[in-house]
Amino acid sequence: MSDQVAHFIGGAPVAEGPLFPVHDPVTGAVVRQVHEADRATVDRAVRAARAALPAWAGLSVAERAQWMRRLADAIEERFEDLVAAEIADTGKSITQTRTLDIPRGAANFRSFAEIAAQRPDSAFHLPGVLSYTVPKPLGVVAVIVPWNLPFLLMTWKLGPALVAGNTVVVKPSENTPGSAAVLAEIAAGIGLPPGVLNVIHGYGGSSAGQFLVEHDGVDAVTFTGESRTGSTIMKSVADRVKPISFELGGKNAGLVFADADLDAAVEGCVRSVFTNGGQVCLCTERLYVERPVFEDFTARLAERARALVFGRPQDENTTMMPMISAEHRDKVLSYYDLAKADGAKVWAGGGVPSFGDDRDSGYYVEPTVLTGLPAGSRVNREEIFGPVCHIAPFDTEAEAVALANDSEYGLAATLWTTGLDRAHRVARQLEAGLVWVNTWYLRDLRTPFGGVGLSGIGREGGVHSLDFYSEPTTITIKL
Ligand code: NAD
Questions:
Q1: Long-range contact set of residues 460-467: C-beta below 8 Å, sequence gap at least 24
Q2: Mean pLDDT of the chain
Q3: What pLDDT is attached to residue 279?
Q4: What is the arithmetic mean of pLDDT over 433-461?
Q5: N or C terminus: fewer CB in 10 A for the chain?
Q6: Closest ligand 1 atom, CA of 147?
Q7: Whether the CB of 165 sits within 6 Å of ligand 1
Q8: pLDDT digits (tens, 9 = 90+) for 42-56
Q9: Is 279 in the pocket of ligand 1 (CB under 6 A)?
Q10: Is position 247 annotated as part of the catalytic site?
């Protein structure tokens, strides 16, 4: 990939539109310049996707599944290029990028190839009547994705959308265009039919993202990002009643009961609070701990937070990464300040680390552990999307469930207990699309994924993705 990133339309690079910079979050330096799509470029991409649709939709599922496997193989061949692109844009650690972000990208194509190929046809029999359904693609799908897990989240949508016979126009985040640009090269390299996968770059509102979702030639929108952006997109597609799938924000709760394996709970919460700098929609920002273990748990989590390693991304021991941008760092720090102003006790962090080198111009914040804020504090209600959690004590199971559910969001919850009965009883009472018991972010890609409330609309994963990315036609014959 060159330092200037072009769009990928109809199987070829298209270098048009003004250039905008992408910054390395580690140092703040400009890593690349990217072309911004205007309405004309977006129109070109949507037309390319439309032109490719009949032939792509006309392939059998088995043939499209074979293309998905080829993409997965080619991703593995370009593995280190994808790792480098992802690190340059996000400042993630090489260890995480090699074990999570890029392997999941290949797995997303491979799993949906298998899931689609094995999907049974539906036929329903009544006396003298045969009904069956034929799944058809939605058409041209707009894929709009965020910056926190750029490759993983993009391919999570591309795999099922493409195998279901849609053609796509992807708009990666303006902060993280790199791995999408490498994927475009990979698609061209394996000879994926031109127009099946198109990538355009640019910002969201009044730019490429908005122009894409508003385009009359776009039949459906699949979006991962902030709840507020989801609301804006929903309004802009309302007149055309376009199908939408929304994976949005979270303010996820974790419950730690006194009967939990406390070592496992502390380690699990270190992961669920601080992974990816806390910039995962599934990260825990509110922890509730049963009173007898509250002090011990909090002290141990704070100690582990202070021990996280702010190395360079290329250092395999690095466990803490920067925020994605100066703007996002300032947002996270504003919540640290608010917590202090509201009287929080700061057990760890609360500020900006100092390195004495070029990382001082990067976008780092300290991993932070807070206690002592009321449930109504904005720190406890709003998604911060940084390496921070607030911990509050609880006395009864019912109180723990009520505290966890006291949120407008409902994406993920974690539950730490050795009581099997309690695990089942509490898990089903939690108002969240995903509940993890004694673990976090353990995924079987066949299971439904998504949230309730402000956290989203619909479910993706396994056949649930295929259901969204296709429209069934029911054919009924009188025999
Ligand atoms: P964002 O909403 O600011 O941007 C996401 C994408 O939408 C970007 O590509 C952006 O350019 C585009 N966009 C912005 N405004 C738009 C508009 N008006 N029309 C069309 N496109 C527009 O989100 P972000 O800051 O990139 O990502 C962080 C957010 O994503 C957090 O809220 C996080 O919880 C959420 N997220 C959710 C999930 C999930 O699966 N539920 C996964 C990851 C991230």
A1: 460/156, 460/157, 460/160, 460/222, 460/245, 460/247, 462/115, 463/115, 463/119, 465/112, 465/115, 465/157, 465/159, 465/160, 465/161, 466/112, 466/115, 466/116, 466/119, 466/135, 466/160, 466/163, 466/164
A2: 97
A3: 98
A4: 97
A5: C
A6: 26
A7: no
A8: 999 999 999 999 999
A9: no
A10: yes
